């Protein structure tokens, strides 16, 4: 049934209320209007529809056959309007929609698990699309609109990066991991000189040039220990090889978040910083889902909130 140009949602509510109460006065009272305007609106509706929708009798007001047909669709239309209102409100609060997140693997050590667990718990109807990718790839995907937010090692660089809002959410430095049988297992700290005498295990992931630069700073650019190091795919492999007694693993301090029997972690001196873990998103993006995700980051990473708010103010 197609509605005429002057049939509005209020006309549907008026007709449904009248059908439920069978009386103009009682229906008007429920609707919060006077009886004469209700009678006029129903008459206008019948003229627009081109059929008598209600029989006015001494016993009350009852739908005609045309009225019953009209009311069946009217009720469904009102249900759809109510549902649309609810859906719009949920979308505006970031409770529905889609979030595309790119991340480097080490972000899964900390803080991404806590953030994602909380976000999924509080907004189960948001569709999360998660993509593990290198910093260079996720940065360009963010600029190109393929991602909504990215976690990278250092801020994204290149064309368009100036339009991104970036904030550090995790600082890191080099630590060592050894098996419990290794001579260093009882030490709180190992030195660069000690490391130069060991077989080393380092990562060769796409994001590791920055880590490699930190290790060259620590051990020397031409260090034989680095030249002969065992190359691992990621931090989990570094820890696994160290547990197997292959050598001393070197990686980010976030490795401590990986529970693994048979290994010990040691600080490294001198302390060698690594690039920050950085959260970035498009400054022009005002989507409620992104806003909700940033709120979750603020709640789960309290130290990030002030810096994030400052970046947003500066970008605006």
UniProtKB/TrEMBL annotation:
GO terms for cellular component: protein-DNA complex. Belongs to the LysR transcriptional regulatory family. The keyword Hydrolase does not apply. Residues 7-64 form the HTH lysR-type domain. InterPro entries: LysR_HTH_N, LysR_subst-bd, WH-like_DNA-bd_sf, WH_DNA-bd_sf. Keywords: DNA-binding, Transcription, Transcription regulation. One of its GO terms (molecular function) is DNA binding. This is Hca operon transcriptional activator HcaR. The gene is hcaR_1. The keyword Transmembrane helix does not apply. Gene3D superfamilies: Periplasmic binding protein-like II (3.40.190.10), Winged helix-like DNA-binding domain superfamily/Winged helix DNA-binding domain (1.10.10.10). It comes from the Bacteria.
């Amino acid at each position: 049934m197609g509605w005429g140009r002057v049939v509005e949602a209020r006309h549907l509510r008026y007709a449904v209320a009248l059908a439920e109460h069978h009386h103009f006065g009682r229906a008007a009272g429920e609707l919060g209007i006077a009886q004469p305007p209700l009678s006029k609106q129903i008459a206008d509706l019948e003229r627009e529809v081109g059929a008598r929708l209600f029989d006015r009798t001494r016993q009350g007001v009852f739908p005609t056959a045309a009225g019953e047909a009209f009311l069946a669709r009217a009720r469904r239309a009102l249900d759809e309007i109510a549902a649309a209102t609810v859906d719009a409100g949920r979308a505006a609060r970031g409770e529905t929609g889609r979030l595309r997140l790119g991340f480097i693997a080490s972000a899964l050590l900390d803080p991404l698990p806590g953030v994602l667990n909380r976000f999924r718990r509080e907004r189960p109807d948001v569709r999360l699309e998660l993509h593990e990718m290198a910093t260079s790839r996720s940065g360009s995907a963010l600029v190109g609109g393929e991602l909504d937010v990215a976690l990278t090692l250092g801020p994204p660089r290149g064309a368009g990066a100036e339009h991104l809002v970036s904030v550090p959410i995790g600082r890191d430095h080099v630590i060592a991991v050894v098996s419990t049988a290794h001579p260093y297992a009882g030490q709180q700290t190992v030195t660069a000189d000690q490391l130069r005498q060991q077989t080393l295990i380092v990562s060769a992931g796409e994001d590791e040039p920055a880590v490699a630069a930190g290790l060259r700073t620590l051990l020397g650019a031409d260090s034989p220990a680095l030249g002969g190091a065992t190359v691992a795919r990621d931090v989990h492999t570094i820890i696994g090889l160290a547990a197997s007694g292959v050598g001393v693993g070197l990686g980010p301090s976030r490795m401590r978040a990986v529970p693994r029997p048979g290994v010990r972690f040691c600080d490294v001196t001198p302390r060698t910083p690594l690039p920050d873990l950085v959260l970035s998103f498009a400054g022009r993006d005002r989507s409620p889902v992104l806003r909700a995700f940033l709120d979750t980051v603020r709640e789960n990473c309290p130290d990030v909130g002030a810096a994030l708010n400052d970046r947003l103010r500066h970008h605006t």
